[in-house]
Amino acid sequence: MFEEISVSQAELNVILSKKESYILDFKSKRIDAGKLQNHFVAFANSDGGDLYIGIEELKSQGNLFRVDGFSNAEEANQMLYQLLQDTEPAVEGVVAEFLITLNQEYILHIVVPKSDKVHYNSKGECFVRLNAQSVKIKGEKIVKLAYAKGFYRYEDTGVEGVDIEDITSSKFLQDYLSNVNSLQDPIKFLKRNRLLKDEKKSKITVAAALLFDEQPQEILSTKCGIKIIRMQTTSKDYKRQQLSGIDVVNGPIEIMAKDSEERIFEIIKNSTFMINGGEVEVAYPVETVHEILVNAILHRDYSIADDIHVTIYDDRIEIKSPGRLPGNVTIDNILDAHFSRNPNIVRIINKLPNPINHDLGEGLNTAFKAMQSIGLVRPIIEEIDNNVLVTISHEKLKSYEDQIMAYLENNEWVSNKVARNITGEGSENKIKRILQNLRKANRIEVEDPNVARAKLRYIKKRD
């Protein structure tokens, strides 16, 4: 049995006022179950989303929507069965519930999570979301989707035309074996650590090249370096004369990470920064730049032919890495997620006595806390096109109250848990007091006073 929830007219109006998007779709109860499965698969293959069945568009009235729900939950059984059982492989973590309106109409609400697998409908077809549509993809696009999710690992791909001896005799492999106190023969080490490919183990993998080749970018068919760009402006719409310089850093991963970090802080030390017309002294926590840079290097999608871009503006640093977030990692859960697109690279680097990396969530938590400790706002993580962009801003941290109210400018509600995520404050009681103070100041109110305290949500004070 699926949960059945009665909704008020006000709650229903909020749903109907939403616009269909990359993560939201309304469908008529009369939709063919096979066509609905296309949208279900598309959400799972993309960033997840919400499907509402029993809401249809009034095209003659400017994209407005109305409820035309099921008369009971049993009417949707066949549809649910096809979605949950006939999708290959089955999508895990799906939440399905029925929303019951005042007119006793049943709306089927399905929350589809972002999946770390590639899913197909019952016909073997693959779909992804593109804007507010579900689009079928084939061939190479499915392979790229699998790489993006970490389902196929590009790091395990064999590299053509490279002599294994170039790696076994590499100074960087020799240094690595010495640092981890290993007396293994280099060939044996490569075999044991899955760094050789094909049945005869006659090819090195992409991971081996990235870790131990002197110049990986020269032997791989994709870009894998770091571009460090200095822009003498705060504007994204910069002029050519504001471009102060471009450095390109290459080399094996560990060396590249250390050299890039050193160059970033060298540029910051030797630069003049102008914010709001005045010269200011700019400083960023070493931990923040280090963790975000290393995360970009270790978790980027190396199948994409592009470098990591580090752009140093007068008021911020932007670090853009190729590829969207891997597996089931989302913007919302990234601080708690433990997933790697390149697990072999991460594991081998982590064996070093003083490794450059932490777990994905652990490292980013360190970066966020370091910013908060010197009174600067938390980094912003975004997915833009086929990249992950992290912005480290030189902006003073607002009060918790101001951060919560700023969040409510763009979101319908906030809870204690959400407020803790926004502010980085770990104390539930402290946030509780702040929410109470905002209520006393008539800046927020409880959305529904009848729910349990643990489920309280707050909205901006209504006029």
Provide a descriptive summary of the structure in words.
Helices cover 34% and strands 21% of the residues. The longest helix is centred in the middle third of the chain and has 17 residues, at 253-269. It folds into four domains: 3-137, Methyltransferase, Cobalt-precorrin-4 Transmethylase, Domain 2 (2-Layer Sandwich), CATH 3.30.950; 154-219, no CATH class; 226-393, Heat Shock Protein 90; 400-460, Arc Repressor Mutant, subunit A. By secondary structure, it is α+β, with helices and mostly antiparallel strands. A hairpin with a 5-residue loop joins strand 10 (196-197) and strand 11 (203-204). The mean pLDDT is 90. InterPro entries: RecG_C_sf, Schlafen_AlbA_2_dom, Schlafen_AlbA_2_dom_sf.
What labels describe this entry?
single chain; about 475 residues; Methyltransferase, Cobalt-precorrin-4 Transmethylase, Domain 2; Heat Shock Protein 90; 4 domains; six-stranded mixed β-sheet; five-stranded mixed β-sheet; globular
